[in-house]
Every structure is written in C-alpha cells, then in structure tokens.
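Dear colleagues,

As part of the handover before I leave the project, I'm documenting each prediction I ran so the next person doesn't have to rerun anything. This entry is a single chain, and its sequence is reproduced below.
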Amino acid sequence: MSWASRGLARLWRLPPARSHQVGVERDLQVPAPDGSILLADRYYPAGDPQAPLVLVRTPYGRRGVNGLSARLLAERGYQVLVQSCRGTFGSGGHFDPFVNEAADGLATLEWLRRQRWFGGVLATYGGSYVGFAHWALAAQGVPELRAMAVQLSGSDLRGLMRPGGSVALETALTWTYTVQHMELPPPRMLLSLLRFGRVLRRAASRLPLLETDTVVAGHEVEFFRRWLEREPDDEAWSAIDVSAGLDRVTAPVQLLGGWYDIFLPAMLADYSRLRRAGRTVRLVIGPWAHASGATFRTGLRETLSWFDRHLHAASAPPQAPVRIFVMGGGGWLDLADWPPPGVRPQPWYLHPGGGLAVQPPPPSAPDRYRYDPERPTPAVGGVTLAAGAGPKDNRRLEARDDVLVFTGEVLQRDLVVMGPVSADLFVRSSLEHTDFFVRLCDVDPRGRSVNLCDGLQRLKPGQPPADAEGVRRVRVELWPTAHRFRRGHRIRVQVSSGAHPRFARNLGLGEPVARGTAFKAADQQVLHDPEHPSAVLLPL
C-alpha cells in the first residue's frame, strides 16, 4: 500500500484492504470501431489475477484522482480498468461529448472478453460524465455486468442542458472551460481555475450567446454551439438520452446524488424506472452540490459496500432501498421508497403583503415587478456546476426590486418537507416571451434566508395559454428536497424572472436563444386572490 492510500483509507473509513500489493499496467491499447486507439490503465490485486473487474471510462484522465480511487479499489480485491474516452488524455479520435460512449463502451467490452485476466464479472463505477458513459454501455444489454455504482449522473441529460425550456448557461460554460483546460500541466491548470470566475462573468454578459465559447475557450467549440442552437424538443437530443435502455439493465444499481446536484432529477427518474421494472436499486442522497468532496469520499465507501455485497457475496446487514440526508438537522434517514410513501403535497399560498400561509388568499391586487435583461436578476447559490453552489444567504438577493418575497409565520413546531416540490403560479406579463423562477428558503430567527431548492419555467406565446384577462397559469418544477424547518424558523418563497448566469436570461423578444442580441424589459404580475390562488406545493 502507498502512504497516500493508507492514510485516505483511514480518513475515509474504508473497509480493510484485501491486498497490500497492487500491480499496474499502463497504456493498454483498445481498438475503437473506427480504428482509433483508446488508452487504458489496469490496476489489479496481486494474487487474484481474475478478480471482478471495475470499468471506469472517463474524459478526465487516468491518473490523479482516478488513479488513486483505482488503487483503493484494487487494494480491496477488484481489478480496475481506467480508460480515457476518445480524444482525451492520449486516446485517439475526436472527443464529441456523449455521442460515442455506447459504441466505444461496447468495443471495450469486446476487447475485455479476449483478455486472459478478465474472468467475466464486470462492474462500473463513477460519476458525472463517467456515469453517463456507463449508462450508455449498460443500456445496450451487457450480460457480464453484475453491479453498477453511479454517482451524480443520469441516463437522460436533455433536462440538464435545457432546464424548464431555458439554457443551463453557467453549467455549459463551466464544463466547456473545464474540457478545454483539463489537459494542461498542473501549475497552468491551477492558474486556469483561479481565473475562471472572471472569465465566466465576462462570457455570461456577452451577446449573442453563441459566441461565448470564444471567451471561455479562445476559439469556437462545436459541441457548445450545437447545444445552444438546439430547441428543447429537438430530436437530436436523443443522443444524450439512453434512458429507454434501462429496461435492459439487470445488474444491481446504486445511485448516489446530492440535493444541490445538477443531475438530481435525472437520477431520481432513473431510480423510478429501475424500481418499476423490479430491479435491485438503492438510492443515496446527501446534502451535496456536484463538486463537493464529500460525494467522492462517501461515494467510494458506499461503492465498496455495494460491490462487496454483489460481487464478493460479503455478508452484511440489510440495506434500506433509500437513504437520504434530511437537512436542517434531521440527519440520515432510511426509507422504503422515493418519494416517501404517504407524503402528499400541501399548498402554501402566496398572500398580499408578502405573506405565505396554508389558508387560501383573500381578495387582493397582484404583486408587480419589472424584469430587465440588461440588469438581470443574479443567481445566488443553488444548483450549479460553478463555484458557489449549494445553500447561501439570500438576503441581498431578496432586497432587490425584481424579486418578490413571501414569508410564513414563525413555526410553532418542526415541519419536515420531503419529496418533489413545485409551484402553481397565476401570472401576467407585458411580454409573451418571459421566465418565472421560484425558490424555497428557510429563514432562521436571525433573519438569515437559506435556499433549499428552486426551478425556472420559460414561457412562449400560447405556452401556457392566457385567459381573456391575460392571466397564464404556470407550473414550475423545483428540485426535490428533504429538509426540517425547525420550530422558530419561517418558510419563505421567492418569485422572480431569472437567475443569471445559471439560466440564460430571457431577452423578451423571442429570438433564438443562441443568436439573440436585442432585449426588452418585462412588467410582471403575480396574482394571489381566491380566483388565482398562486401557491408552492410542499410534500409534508
């Protein structure tokens, strides 16, 4: 064992090593269907040359964190093949994100079947892009696949790219910047990370959005421009949706996500699909954002437990199908299913004067604000790939004149919200093209307002339709959550029309999102009266 693996195993409370001797073969050559050569490194425990094999197909390199996790797995009785996706870190071909992972994964499997050290037992491990690459392979039907550990990922990414009909601009820019700089030498890589905040601000303020790739990459990026120009209902998005193939997956699957992770809705959809198909699936959700280091530590520990159970037939106490972290001091909780059986949504209605209550609103005039895309409402914390994700103090955001705030009375007892969250708004806008953003917050006795979950919905002409008075009923799907509002706290709901640059600002004139340059401010109304009972629906 190396000093690093020994120290991390102790720090992360990993199970004891089965082998203190790990062999490594570098730069194994795997032929892809088009003749490109994909490079891979193999880690294996000494004394067990046909141990179960864990496949990690990644665009982020075979050394560093991936090499360390491979060594930790090998010390605990597993072979690990870490392969660079095409066009990255020495592998041949052109890196076209997500497009080639099914074919290259199958080619890797065919190559594995010819290796004398492959004993016919396969597992997959990894998160984010790596998780999708493994879904793309598993969806083809792989008889050797005996276990999967998927972290912070999903099998259908179209909702990640175009949430609520908008564009996940900050995520697209952040990932494009990462891909363009990830193969730099470590000192230059560190410098690029330090510069990114400034680069992101400059890119996000530029119009048209199609040209922002030149700010973060220094040149045109084909996949970035393709993502921006596709409409949400474009059939071409099917290239990043392999969810239909989950019916072919028979291996036990463990899914690990975070309440502030960009992939959470896609992961929960995967869980539901596997559960309906009668598959063995376990769901773990912690209080994490996508780049949280805790997900790696916890994910590796949970993965080893999962693999030991299903690949080494290790005896272990039974595990609940769902294990979630209830924020607000609730801690870890085991459940029979997700959403929790018996949980029902309760409407909390928006009231005049900034109130929020379970009683329907009285007759009242609508609240109004003006959304100006030249001065867009900023994003504060929440679900993002960039720095600053997760729970943040929202008081400065809530002081803006383009953010409506509705707050409930002080709670006399603890209240637990656990499950999908949505909002039902009755709105008017001076423009047919506009957005509505809804956020749920927990306000403590000192007045600190912390975001729990949120969502945005983009409106177009006739979508949704307006009534004779110009009122449109808008459904906004927020991120799911699990949170305990403590006695003495208050529930708060924000309503605005953007969270820039997390979502691309709506310019208001209906130009294509990638090419629009002109903009117009929107005068917004949110109604809350007996005929128009705007509400957030909380699963209690």
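The chain has a mean pLDDT of 95. The chain has four domains: 1-120, 148-156+242-336, 161-235, 345-539.

All the best with the project,
I.
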